[in-house]
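quick one
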Amino acid sequence: MSHSVVLVLIPASTPTALVEDTVRDALAPFDENLEVPEHDEECYCVGRIAKDAGEAFACAQVGTWNALRASFAAKFPLPAGKHDFDLGETENDARRQAWAAHISDHQAIARQHAEAHPLAGKPDPECTDCSGGGTNKTTSNPRAKWDWFTIGGRWTGMLSGRDPADDPDNWEPCELCLGTPGKRNDTLGRGARAKDPNYGCNGCRPEKPGLKMKWRLKQDPGDVAPVSSFVSNGHVEKKDQIPFAILERDGTWSERGDMHWFGVVVGEKPRDEWKDAAEAILARNLDALAVVVDVHI
Ligand SMILES: [Zn+2]
Ligand SMILES: [Zn+2]
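structure w/ zinc ion:
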């Protein structure tokens, strides 16, 4: 269950009043609740026994995940008092790469062992779902990408560069400290302040005492914009204009996680590779309107 941002590309001739309907139509084939004709779906148990055996073998050979995490922390200690989430994007990428290198032996051994296992790519003969057949009948949508969406949402302002926090309409009173802005004055707040006189309120931030961001942000008019307004010479103006996924007018869905344009699917790709791919897609759609869409699945 997570949110991500999709740029839905629609014809430039779309009247403003029809943008939402056009986006809805474009997204319809990717609706998780769309029922499709019954088809076979591979059971989750396929290959699982071999994979589990590979994992167990690798853990025995080069150490468990706990041991790997501990040796990584010893080899690449974080600066004192810092957490992973305190790191900037560059540091974070470097750390992620170091982690990938740190676990590469474990993964290679696990994979090799799994591939050589007699049940590699085969179902669990005792699976209660597929009875060992390896497939189940389903009418669920294999292309499902969303169960809810809204234009803008938590990515409103992504194309315009306007920060929704700068719009007073996006703030509302913090109900935890009503009447005493920034200082929670209920039993819990008074109790916390008895221990720490600096305790304020956990519902709002000291910069904006008594106010919190609304759950539903106002839509920025720039959430619907010509692709040519933020892409020039094949590049986006700002790198945070690269979405998680792009839906083109011909119904092609491309996303950071699967790289069908290279003919290989290998999970999450390094940011730069997806940036290049996304920019190439946008550059061939300069005549379209881009709509910022917050999707949930
Ligand atoms: Zn099964
Ligand atoms: Zn508050």
